[in-house]
Amino acid sequence: MKLTYWTIKCINDAHCYNIRSKTKKGAIETLLNGDFDPAEYDNEVWRMTLEYKDAFDLLDGAFSEEREDANLIDSRAYSIAHLK
Question: Distance from CA of residue 78 to its chain's centroid?
Answer without folding.
Answer: 12
